[in-house]
Design a protein that fits this description.
alpha/beta; eight-stranded parallel beta sheet; single chain
Length: 295
C-alpha cells in the first residue's frame, strides 16, 4: 500500500486558497492550569506493525505537487537509545514531502539524519565546518536553510550543530523560522534543563499555538506544566498534546496532526497578511482623499 504522502502539501494549498473565518484549528481539550493531567491528552496509538517502509516500497512522485514549503522544527529530550532515530525515521518519511525539517544536531539522531555532504565533510576531516561557533555563523546558516526539494520531491533535514554556548540562540532563531514545531517530551522531567528551557521559550515567544507535543507514561506532567508556567504559558495554549504507548507510535497519525496545525498556521498568517494589505490600501485611500480635498 502506498501512503498518500502528498496529503499535507495538498491540504495546505487548498485551505489557503479558500480561507474561511469560521474554521479554527482542532485543539486538545486541556484545563486552564499549569498542571497537565493524562486526561488532557489524546492518545497516539501505535499500529501493530511499523509503518516505516522497506526499500521495496514504492514512493509517490511529488514533483508535480503544489510548491508549498512548510518548515518543521523538531525539539526533543535527547535519548541514549534508538528511540530518537526511530522517531525521526517515522517523521521524516512523511514530512519531507511537505517541507524541510530543522533541528539541533545531536548524537541521538546522527545515523538517521546524516546526509552525503556531512559524511563527506567527516571523511575529509572538515566536520567542524558544519558547527555553529558564534552569532555570525548562526545567522549565515539561518538565512541559507536548504528549502529546495530534491528531484524525488523530498525536502532535506537541516541540522544545526552548536557549541555549548550557542545552542540557546540557535533554538530561538529556529523557532522564529519555523511554521510548525514538534516537541518530543517523552521521558521529560525537571532535571532535563535543556528541554525545560525550550518549553519555557516556546511559551515566552508565543509559539505554543503551532506546537504539537508528544508525551508518554514517563513524562512528568507536573514538571512539564511548571516549565510552561515558567515561560508564562499554560497547557491549553499548545496546539495538541499527544500521548504515546510504548516506544513506537503511529507516524501517519502524527503526520496528519502536524498537517492540521500547519494548515491553521498558514491560514492565520494569510489572514494577517490580508489585513495588513487592506489597512495599507485604506490608509492610501484616506491620504489621497485628503490630498484631493486640500487642492
Amino acid at each position: 500500500e502506498v501512503l498518500d504522502l502528498q496529503a499535507g502539501k495538498l491540504a495546505i494549498t487548498r485551505r489557503i486558497a479558500a480561507l474561511s473565518p469560521n474554521k479554527s484549528p482542532s485543539r486538545a481539550g486541556v484545563s486552564p492550569t499549569s498542571t497537565i493531567s493524562p486526561s488532557s491528552t489524546r492518545k497516539l496509538v501505535a499500529p501493530s506493525t511499523s509503518t516505516v517502509p522497506g526499500s521495496t516500497t514504492a514512493l509517490p512522485d511529488c514533483r508535480s505537487a503544489p510548491p508549498v514549503r512548510v518548515r518543521l522544527l523538531l525539539l526533543r529530550v535527547f535519548a541514549q537509545d534508538q528511540r530518537g532515530e526511530n522517531f525521526l525515521d517515522e517523521l521524516a518519511y512523511r514530512w519531507r514531502y511537505v517541507g524541510p525539517i530543522l533541528m539541533i544536531g545531536g548524537p541521538d539522531m546522527a545515523r538517521a539524519s546524516i546526509d552525503a555532504g556531512e559524511a563527506s565533510d567527516f571523511l575529509r576531516g572538515r566536520f567542524e565546518d558544519d558547527f555553529v561557533f558564534d552569532a555570525e555563523m548562526l545567522e549565515s546558516k539561518a538565512v541559507n536553510i536548504d528549502d529546495r526539494a530534491d528531484p524525488d520531491g523530498r525536502f532535506r533535514i537541516n541540522e544545526f550543530f552548536c557549541r555549548t554556548d550557542m545552542w540557546k540562540q540557535a533554538v530561538q532563531r529556529l523557532m522564529g523560522l519555523s511554521d510548525t514545531i514538534l516537541l518530543d517530551v517523552r521521558g521529560f522531567h525537571a532535571k532535563r534543563d535543556g528541554t525545560a528551557y525550550e518549553i519555557a521559550l516556546l511559551a515566552r515567544l508565543g509559539a505554543l499555538s503551532r506546537t504539537v507535543m508528544v508525551l508518554d507514561a514517563a513524562t512528568q506532567m507536573q514538571d512539564l506544566g511548571d516549565a510552561l508556567a515558567h515561560g508564562g504559558g499554560t497547557p491549553e495554549q499548545a496546539a495538541a498534546l499527544l500521548m504515546t504507548t510504548g516506544e513506537s507510535l503511529d507516524g501517519e497519525a502524527l503526520f496528519r496532526e502536524l498537517v492540521q496545525v500547519a494548515v491553521a498556521t498558514q491560514e492565520a498568517a494569510a489572514k494577517v497578511a490580508a489585513a495588513t494589505v487592506t489597512a495599507a490600501v485604506t490608509a492610501a485611500d484616506t491620504l489621497e482623499a485628503a490630498a484631493t480635498e486640500a487642492t
